């Protein structure tokens, strides 16, 4: 239907079939239109009898001689004839108004359809957010980014990474793989193909496409292109070879082109503050739409945690497990107990970012103030896991022991230049 045509590039076989049906219908309607024209003008072919006309003329051989003909036109009679036919045409239209309107409307729709097909199947360059279609997939570029840093903000390449966030679904019931070898980025005439070597470094931007099956359900994947540093990002074209047409001694690829306008992730610097109990709503990168909530926290040298120890199914008693930092450390440590939960964006891999500790470990920065001097914990976080009991949304994390003496404590989630900061103390 036409609603689907608005969002799809029509298959050539479908267009050809529709063209044949429309041509047949047009021929049939043309015959009806011819009849209406004949009736409207008053033309009656039955009145012509050419054989009788030749007999009545009694043409002789002498008639082959040259003669002069004086042709005179009576303009008044001609004008009266024209007005009479126009008047008769109006009568015919009034009597057959509904049928004539239907024929004209169908003719107009057919012409408009062919104009639409002609315009939409030309060499179109789509924009980001524009829905386009290939033979097997429907997709659009949701977002695009440029950076040379990983999710922690560390530089990972001297070049530039252009990341395309592609939303894609299959057109048919069968699950298919997206051919990334047919996809490349055109940068001022130079072409670059996707790479997956940075997939572990860009977990905040989405799931890197690595030959996952594409179904009829919409899903987002990222495609990463490593390109040289460029000053102008206004002429970046994503090209996809949908199929290759074969003609005499040549191959003619059919391209789908999308103009990408990447956002520079390294240019953002912003801080947002939150109190314990408030919920962070992430609004940038592939994490956009996700939520982080810290309900409460505690900070101690050692945690004595009670749990139920059962000898038999009917005999249980209270026991304790002591949670403390690893004794093999270069620094004195304490334990930060965090109780909280997260809600992931559907764009990110929930097998990697599974809980609030994984967010702290990936994006967390612990800042604190002692005697008016701001400090930052530079060592990485390490989780202390209970062995005697299981916890739900409660995590014990090693931090520097001097944090116990801090006047103020802040836990910041730094996501591509935007700092979502909890004021713990």
Structure, described:
The strands form six sheets. This protein has a five-stranded mixed β-sheet with strand order 1-11-10-6-7, with no helix packed on it. Helix 2 (12-41) packs across helix 4 (75-95) and helix 2 packs antiparallel against helix 5 (97-120). It contains six helices and 24 strands. The longest helix is centred in the first third of the chain and has 30 residues, at 12-41. 22% of the residues lie in helices and 36% in strands. With 425 residues, the protein is of the alpha+beta class. It has helices at residues 2-5, 12-41, 50-57, 75-95, 97-120, 356-363; strands at residues 125-127, 132-133, 137-147, 160-170, 176-177, 183-187, 190-192, 213-214, 219-227, 236-247, 250-260, 263-264, 270-275, 279-281, 291-300, 303-310, 316-323, 333-343, 364-370, 373-376, 382-384, 394-400, 408-415, 418-423. A hairpin with a 5-residue loop joins strand 16 and strand 17 (316-323).
Quick synopsis:
The protein is an alpha+beta fold. It contains 6 helices and 24 strands.
What does the secondary structure layout of this molecule look like, with pairings?
Blueprint lengths: L1 H4 L6 H30 L8 H8 L17 H21 L1 H24 L4 E3 L4 E2 L3 E11 L12 E11 L5 E2 L5 E5 L2 E3 L20 E2 L4 E9 L8 E12 L2 E11 L2 E2 L5 E6 L3 E3 L9 E10 L2 E8 L5 E8 L9 E11 L12 H8 E7 L2 E4 L5 E3 L9 E7 L7 E8 L2 E6 L2
Parallel strand pairs: 1-11, 3-12, 13-24
Antiparallel strand pairs: 2-3, 3-4, 4-9, 5-8, 6-7, 6-10, 10-11, 14-15, 15-18, 16-17, 18-22, 19-20, 19-23, 21-22, 23-24
Helix pairs in contact: 2-4, 2-5
